[in-house]
Amino acid sequence: MKTNKSDYIDAEAIAEAVVRRTVRFVPIKSDNQLDLQSLHRIRERWVMRRTAVVNQTRGLLLERGITLRKGRRYVDAALPGILADPATKLSGALLVLLTELKLERAQLGEKIDRPISRLRRFLGRTKPLLPV
């Protein structure tokens, strides 16, 4: 592998690969494989966003002196009680923001939980997308 990319170096590498008999070429992916790969990429982004929402919720509460254990399930379990408890003395603005974050977290959870069935429905299939 040569350093510094350029069209000339790319053309030289392609010509060298064609001449060698031991070079194995990668097969072109089918549309179903590309669809599944796209699904996984988008789902991974949703998971990262959900993690960011959970961490931001924990951070906002920590700034107000309310500590929660690390992990989505602990935030999900504690947040409804925190929002309903008047003893927490959180400002109205923060309660609105935390409620919005809770809603966003729930929406992301729904998106994450149903992508495979959605893709199967889109492709009109009920069998597995790829052989195992």
Descriptive tags:
132 residues; mainly alpha; elongated
Structural topology:
Blueprint: H1 7-19, H2 31-63, H3 72-84, H4 92-113, H5 115-123
Helix pairs in contact: 2-4, 2-5
The major β-sheet equals:
none
Number of helices: 5
Beta-strand level of the residues, as a percent range? under 5%
In whole angstroms, how far apart are the ends? 33 Å
Please state the overall shape, judged from the principal axes of the Cα atoms: elongated
Cα Rg: 24 Å
Mean pLDDT: 84
Query: What's the total count of β strands?
Result: 0
- The low-pLDDT segments are none
Element string (H = helix, E = strand): HHHHH
Which bin fits the share of residues in helices?
55-70%
User: Helices and strands: which structural class?
Assistant: mainly alpha
Number of domains: 1
What does this protein look like?
By secondary structure, this protein is mostly helical. It has one domain. The protein is about 70% helix and about 0% strand. It is built from five helices and no strands. The chain has helices spanning about 5-20, 30-65, 70-85, 90-115, 115-125. Helix 2 packs antiparallel against helix 4 and helix 2 packs antiparallel against helix 5. The longest helix has about 35 residues, at about 30-65. The two termini are about 35 Å apart. The model has no long low-confidence stretch (mean pLDDT about 85).
